[in-house]
Amino acid sequence: MQNYDQNNYWLESSKSLGGVYPYYNREAPDSFTLNFSEIISYRKTNNLAIELDQTTLVTKMCLPFLIGDRTLIQGVEKAPWLSDYKGKGQWRPHYLPEHGNLIPEKNTFTVKLKEALLAEARNYIEGKKNIGILLSGGMDSRVLAGVIREIQLKERPEISVICLTWGASDSRDVVYAQRIAKQFGWEAIHYHLSPETLLRNIKFAGIHGAEFSAFHLHAMEDVANTPNLDAIIAGSYGDSVGRAEFSGSHLTELKPILPRMLDEYGVLNNHSLNAAKKELKKDVIDSSHLLKSTSPLRQREIEQEMHYMRRMLQACMQTLAIKTPIYQLFTSPDVFGLMWGLTPEFRNNDWYTLLLQQLPGELLNIPWARNGKLYHQQDKPALDNLSKSYHQYGKWIRNDLKEEVLNRLNSDVIRNLSVFNDKGLDRLINNWGKATTSGINSIDESVAWLCSLHDMLEIYDISHSSVTTHSSFVDVIRGHLGNLHAQAFIIARNKLRS
Description:
This protein has 498 residues and is of the alpha/beta class. 46% of the residues lie in helices and 10% in strands.
């Protein structure tokens, strides 16, 4: 494995949607690191305050991702989205391709898109021999596999490709990924997931700044420790760029990044919530990439990429970049610029079908992990009875790890935080325990993140002011309404998923 310069790497990657965003201290704006522990060490060594950011605490209880450049520590920020560092704390935004309304001839456009993806991948693997790819049974990583295979066959026969996958051995994701690897003659490394993995990920998330829930880490720690890799490539942006889909919603259906109702379960006190709302609204619109003339649709897409994709998905991926450069296919300006130029309704599932028809391996003949059907024949029945789920995170955290979770949630470390509504956390925990699904829900997300927050505070010995708050009449009402909302949500989800 080659050594690499992290600063040159992240600066170069900052031109793409799939870049990584290092930490820096406001007091030392010219010093960057991808490692959260180094940021804390710097502050301790230089006698700088290490205090929790209350707005960030509230944000993470209300949303599954952070907003803007904030971290959980005051004075510590992430590098701005798609920006070039000019020195002395000054940033310049990179150019963003325009959105358009093109309706091109499909075959001609597919050739153009394929060539852009090949050029992007060539750039990522230039000078590198041992390439790891994150491979699942989904379509994003399948396109990635086809692109890398074409380069290997036609240009770089000397490269070695290692497929990295994780989850239950009988799940579609794992079985289909292994089938693709075998078809191309690539080595496949499969990492198992278990309750113990999830517990490790809770702590791992805490070590890395508690920016994300442990549920999104999967086998990241194991992948990070995979030896002899010169680069890791993922296709995680395929849905958002290739199909204009964000968490199952098409671009044309997206709502503003901040929902009207924050803290729907009534966990936070009204004072903390209202103070955070003002700051959050500033964070959402305070970007040189968002102008008064920006169209609503373009604004929605930029918001999703700037906040959701960057602060949740890429925050997890950044843990890999500490040891090995990680790249995301579909994220170079030449690629996402092509897709942004299409009329929104024209950004759909068809492009994966057309791309895979032109890439090696006949990968359309392997079913889609989402439903076991051939991707281009969704009107026909599933082709196997494999499990659609590669984990049981919900079951594991509520049953296998229940004692570990409750010890953290009921500790002084969490209970002395001043942002919670009186008895709000008790109600949340009570409703959380009533869920029966194997998959996770939004309350599981909050619970897992609070566990990682607990571990972060303990690992780094971060102190915080303990403020005694008294419930106002508004807090009482919000608490009861939030409790009813949580109860209804759990009952409905249990019935729907049974």
